[in-house]
Amino acid sequence: MPPPQKTKKALVIGVSGQDGAYLAKLLLEKGYTVYGTSRDHEVSSFANLVTLGIRDRVKTMSMVTSDFRSVLTALQRAEADEVYNLAGQTSVGMSFDYPVETFDSILIGTMNLLECLRLLRHPVRFYNAGSSEVFGNTQKPATETTPFHPRSPYAAAKAAAHYSVTNYREAYGLFACTGILFNHESPLRPARFVTQKIVSTAVRIGNGSKEKLVLGRLDIRRDWGWAPEYVEAMWRMLQQK
Q: Among 95, 131, 132, 152, which one carries the catalytic annotation?
């Protein structure tokens, strides 16, 4: 008889967010042992994991991606076959107010993960969450060949992280890739995002509220995807030979 296949282990960095929660659910359905991190797992409510009914099935631990020792400790503890980096500052607008913190959480966090994986020499597959913001203001829909033209600290940090992943893949032979994510939504999206602002305000107005919904620029065009489909794409990227 063939030897039994070992259970794969995955580490989802930023598991408390929208994508992290849906990805953890997908991986559990596929039979993975799932570890998930947040900045302080002892105080985090992991509300999205609770909403999806998987809180007790995800092994949580703390990680601050900008702290090298914290990253190294979490990677050694999980000994994961696949690592998904979904952490970091997520607000374009906020990045203009806190550009250094944005670069620290996105670029330095990604660099710490890559360097730890290089030093540990564990045959892990690494996924990094990129962003379509790296393309800037395009006159037509962006493709994989559209040049990067970041127009915010957030976009610049994502572009730098993207190139760092490429460098570690080509220079050190790591299985490392970046998925360039366009806008994608779900009921788990935080209230500060425009889709949730519109929906929640419309519900309140429908229930009798006299408030008005005020938005910024209305001339911007965006494509929105469905978050559960995006996390499946992340997983598929790490299954390539």
A: 131
Instruction: Reply yes or no on whether 16 is catalytic.
Output: no
DSSP secondary structure string, 186-219? -TTS-TTSHHHHHHHHHHHHHTT-------S-SS
What sign has the CA pseudo-torsion 143, 148, 152, 157? positive
- From 22, 133, 152, 230, the catalytic residue: 133
> Tens digits of per-residue pLDDT, 114-134?
999 999 988 899 999 999 999
- Catalytic position from the list 84, 127, 154, 230: 154
Q: Does the active-site annotation cover 133? A: yes
What's the rounded Cα separation, in Å, for the pair 217 and 92?
15
pTM above 0.70, yes or no: yes
DSSP codes joined into one string, 99-114: HHHHHIIIIIHHHHHH
Domains by residue range for the chain, with CATH:
9-185+225-237 (3.40.50.720)
Instruction: Say whether 154 is catalytic.
Output: yes
Name the amino acid, one letter, at 95: S
pLDDT bucket at 48, cuts 50 / 70 / 90 = very high
What percentage of the chain has pLDDT greater than the value 70?
97
Averaged pLDDT for residues 220-235: 89
C-alpha count within 13 angstroms, C-beta hemisphere, residue 220? 10
The pLDDT score that the predictor gives to residue 216 is 77
